[in-house]
Design goal:
The structure is a single chain. The protein is of the alpha/beta class and 267 residues long. The strands form two sheets. A six-stranded mixed sheet has the order 1-2-3-4-6-9, sandwiched between helices. Strands 5-7-8 form a three-stranded mixed sheet. Helix 6 runs antiparallel to helix 7 and helix 10 packs antiparallel against helix 11. The radius of gyration is 19 Å and the shape is globular. Belongs to the enoyl-CoA hydratase/isomerase family.
Length: 267
């Protein structure tokens, strides 16, 4: 039995999702896409999970979609269960890339090496990003006469500024991790090989916080993007009141005054 092409490991409240196709530079195929979406749905469905980490096995995070797989999908071939599932549910691809499906809990990216095409597209659907110092990021579809369908033509300019996003999209060229950090596309640059360790530190810190508050903040960040301030405040108020009237909002201050770790129940 070979390992699945996406490894999913729940360690306490942290779910680590690892693209496991290092011999193909972790390029995504039908199995990877299906298993990624299954992992995101698991993150939402399991109340014991509070945060996820997305990473890649080996020296490359993700080189994007396997171009050979695109040809197979266009041909209508159904030679395995994953291809068949993708043919029957064509929305899986964009949901797996975090364009049309966004979990209610935060996702931290831990990237080493190359993140190109879909590797940078899925990055834009994560919430906090860590990269090894030798990592590079690029939306390279235009170099193959393709279009980045997983959201980069819209998201990238919102996350790093119009002019830089336009150059990345129209040339298909990479930017190094340090430049991505300066532009606000990633949060941390760490020594090579340490991205996952740093991501786990952040995940553990998030997991220790009130889960209702974390989910409400994630929802507010996403739902208020590009809204006028007045409309955004309406959404913020709704989520904020739900948190502030919860049992966790009583437990947190009580634990602080009693000098103990809070026992958040998510209610």
């Amino acid at each position: 039995m070979t390992d699945p092409l996406v490894l999913v490991d729940a360690d306490g409240p942290v779910l680590t999702v690892t693209i496991n196709r290092p011999e193909k530079r972790n390029a995504t195929n039908a199995e990877v896409l299906c298993r990624l979406l299954d992992a995101w749905k698991l993150l939402d469905a399991d109340d014991s999970l509070r945060v996820a980490i997305l990473t890649g096995r080996g020296p490359t995070f993700c080189a994007g979609m396997d171009l050979a797989e695109i040809g197979r999908l266009r041909s209508g071939v159904r030679d395995n269960e994953w291809i068949s599932r993708l043919q029957d549910e064509p929305g899986i691809s964009l949901a797996a890339y975090l364009k049309t499906y966004r979990p209610t809990k935060p996702i931290i990216l831990a990237a080493e090496g190359v993140a190109r095409a879909g590797g940078t597209e899925i990055l834009q659907g994560t919430d906090i990003r860590v990269a090894g110092e030798s990592a590079v990021f690029g939306v390279t579809e235009v170099q193959r006469g393709l279009f980045p369908m997983a959201g980069s033509a819209v998201r990238l300019r919102r996350q790093m500024g119009y002019a830089v996003a336009a150059e990345m999209l129209l040339t298909g060229e990479d930017i190094p991790a340090r430049r991505a950090y300066e532009l606000g596309l990633i949060n941390h640059v760490v020594p090579d090989g340490q991205a996952l360790t740093k991501a786990r530190e952040i995940a553990d810190r998030i997991a220790a916080n009130g889960p209702l508050a974390v989910k409400a903040l994630v929802a507010t960040l996403r739902e208020t993007e590009c809204l006028p301030e007045h409309d955004a405040f309406t959404i913020e108020e709704r989520y904020g009141r739900e948190v502030m009237t919860s049992k966790d909002a009583v437990e947190g201050p009580r634990a602080f005054f009693e000098k103990r770790t809070p026992n958040f129940l998510g209610v």
